[in-house]
Amino acid sequence: MPAQDEYIVEILRDVGLVSHEDIRNAQERSRTDEVGLVDSLIKMGRLSAKDVSKALASQFNMDMIDLAEYRVPDDVVALVPKHVARRYKIVPVGKHDNTLTVAISDPMDVDTVDSLRYILRMNVEPVIATKADIENSITRYYGNADDTVENMLQEITEGEVDFGLPSNKAAQQKLDDIAETDADAPIIKLVGLVIMEAYRNRASDIHIEPLEKRLRVRYRIDGVLQEVDNPPKRLQASIISRLKIMSNMSIAEKRVPQDGRIQIPVMGRTLDLRVSCLPTNHGESIVMRILDKTSLLLGLGDLGFFSDDQETMSMLVRPSRIAPASRNRCTTNAS
C-alpha cells in the first residue's frame, strides 16, 4: 500500500469515516483488483470521493469547492492555458490582486503549486475539489483533449470523406433541407470547433480567407490577427457553404457580398455572430464578429461606480425626480 494511501486512510479513520474492518476488507479487495486502498473504499461504498476531499480539506485547513455548482469567470479561465490545466489537473476558480485560486485534488502535491507559481508568475492559493469534478471542469472550460481543431483536421485529412460542393440542382434546395442532409458530416463539427476555439481564446473576430494555394484561418485576439491551424484547401468550398447555410445566406450566389447572422450555443452561452461574405480572386472570404450578449449586461457596480455614486445616478435618472421640476418650470413660465 503506497505511503500516501496509508496517510489518507489514517485521516479517514481518525475522523470516523471508516473502521478497522473496512480497511481490512479494502486491503483484500485492493490486492485482488490492483487498485489503491482509497479507491477500494470508495468502490465498496464505505465513503464517497467528496467525503475524502472534505476530510483532506479539514486536515490541511483548506477550503473545499463544489465545481459542479460553481461558474468560473471567463477572464479567470483565460489566466491558465489549457495545456497547463490538463498537465497539472487543476482548474482556476478566482483571482484577487496577484493571487490566483486554483482547485486541486491532492493537498499534499506541493510540487504542483510551486510549479504553477513559477509558470503563471503569480501567487497561487489552492482549494480542494474532487478529482472527478476537476476533470469534468477541465472538459467544460477547455474542451476534450481530443476535441480540438487540430485533431479534427487530422482526422478529416486522413479519412476518406468527400466534401465536394452540392450540385447546381441541390444548391436550389431550401436551406433547411441542405442542413438536414449534412447533419452527420464531419465538416459541421469542424466549423463548430473553429468557432469554439475562437471563443476560448477570447477572439473578437474570425477571418476565413481563401488564398491561392491554401485556406487561412485567423483570430483577432486583443486587436491582433493571429493565424491558427488551417484546414486543407480542398475543404474551402464546404466550410464556406456551411457558414453561409448557418447564417441564412444564399449558397447559389457567389459573386456579390452577403451579410448574415448566426446564433450558436458555446460552452453554456449563446453567441451572436455577425457574418460577412465577400467574393475574392480565390473564392469567398468570410469574416465573423463574435458578440457575447452576457458580457454586455453590466451594472453600475461592474463599471466601477461606488455605492454612493450609484445612488446618485439612480436618483438622477428616476422619472419621479424629473417630472416635478419640469411642471414647476412650466407653471413659472405661464405666470
Give the key terms.
single chain, three-stranded mixed β-sheet, GMP Synthetase, Chain A, domain 3, six-stranded antiparallel β-sheet, 335 residues, Beta-Lactamase, alpha+beta, 45% helix, 15 helices
What's the alpha carbon Rg, rounded to whole Å?
A: 28 Å
List how many beta strands DSSP finds: 9
Q: Which residue ranges are poorly predicted, with pLDDT under 50 across at least 5 consecutive positions?
A: 158-184
Q: What's the level 1 CATH class of the largest domain?
A: Alpha Beta
The succession of helices and strands, N to C, reads HHHHHHEEHEHHHHHEEEHEEEHH
Query: Number of helix segments?
Result: 15
**Relative helix content:** 40-55%
SS-based class: alpha+beta
User: What topology, given as strand order, has the largest sheet?
Assistant: 6-5-4-9-8-7
In CATH, the architecture of the largest domain is 2-Layer Sandwich
In the CATH hierarchy, the third-tier topology of the largest domain is known as Beta-Lactamase
Q: Largest sheet, if any?
A: 6 strands, antiparallel
**Average pLDDT reading:** 78
